[in-house]
Amino acid sequence: MSSDSSVCDIFKGNASKIINKLEMQIPTYYQIYSDMYKEYLHVMDDVFGTCMMYEKEFLEKININQNWIKNVESYTNFVTEMWLNQIDYYENYLKWYSQMRISGMKTYDKFIHLMTDSYSKNLSNYTRNFEK
Question: pTM above the 0.85 mark?
């Protein structure tokens, strides 16, 4: 530590080290979660592929009524549309939420700068009184 370092210099230096380390890991975290999510989606798709094999093997043998299949299709189309809408709503919510959080952080940053400037001015005035 050099003789002209301050406590704020030390804190800022260490905080910057931590922040830089976390920033460097963002792509890794993103890739890990992306890979897991893609695998989850693949598994779900595979489940329905397996269902088709069993349907051909077993359900066709019992001669299912085509009206029942049409009703199932109609119902699942309705549920699918609800899910697709929910995905859009959630995406919009995440966009709104992140913008709100970022705005809050920027407001807090401005407040800290204002308070630091005020503290600095008051400290300067206080130390000037000691010099007299």
Answer: no
